[in-house]
């Protein structure tokens, strides 16, 4: 870890990630819309628009990112963050609400593969002696620190001015863009700069068994681990946790995620398959345990879930980069996120309905049962990973 931090390029990139990964908006965005006078139905419809736009844009944005180059794409991510969150602060009508949420969906799609592909290529081009797993572990930890800080501060910012959490998010993206200008661009072969060649490269990459396995594992882990987050807030409400205690619950989850990202840096090559199998089992166990003893969920089971999910996604991220050709790395992550997003678009509303019709514990139990099937699929894939 210390060796990675000695690199100016890695340090600069990590600082930009810290500035772009903040989530001051997360605990308050629904409250913000309700305070603006929008109904819960309108807010939910806006969220549906956001999800649809994000999923629809994942793959096209990945294509454009591979065509435009890593640094320019990363600059577009910073610029999109500024535009999206400034637009949110200006909402005063239903039209602006849906427009801002659609813009936010495009910005969200940019986050999927652009930063990850840029970091891996920066290391490969400028710091070939560094272990990418440790660098990605640091990146994951920095992202978790950003989330932890912003979750704890969001409520206080909202009390000062309801628009402030979104304005601060936009403002922090400006120095991130400036810092990005100090990072090198990635050299790409000239033949890989045309749309036709990029799509051909993606088709050729998909014919490789290692690429397909990594991609499907990524989709399964994304759907399995991310979908469960829709149950966190209902769990807190069901247990009667105050807003402050709920904030600490999310902080504990973020802290555990940071630990998971750092731990990934110490997973050796021959232990990756066992680690990924353990991660799927760990997530399944935490879901089942929360269903049986929900009162232990917020500060025991959910942080363990966060640790496992961060560990698994970090290791799998590096594996995916290693087996995917350089010209289509951002596109491959866009494809994985798109496919996972389709699954999440089905699972999250279904879990919400189960919570409303039955209970939070019941929804956790059902998702654990689904997890048995997902674990079986992941195990079948992992058996073929060498």
Automatic annotation (TrEMBL):
Entry protein name: Major facilitator superfamily (MFS) profile domain-containing protein
Keyword Iron-sulfur: no
Keyword list, A-Z: Membrane, Transmembrane, Transmembrane helix
Transmembrane spans: 12-32, 38-61, 73-91, 97-120, 141-158, 164-183, 214-236, 248-267, 274-293, 299-319, 331-354, 360-382
Locations listed in the record: Cell membrane
Pfam hit, one: MFS_1
Gene3D superfamilies: MFS general substrate transporter like domains (1.20.1250.20)
Domain Major facilitator superfamily (MFS) profile: 1-386
Organism: Actinocorallia aurantiaca
First-listed, main subcellular location of the protein, grouped into a coarse class: membrane
Highest taxon above the source species: Bacteria
Coiled-coil ranges from the UniProt annotation: none
Protein topology in the membrane: Multi-pass membrane protein
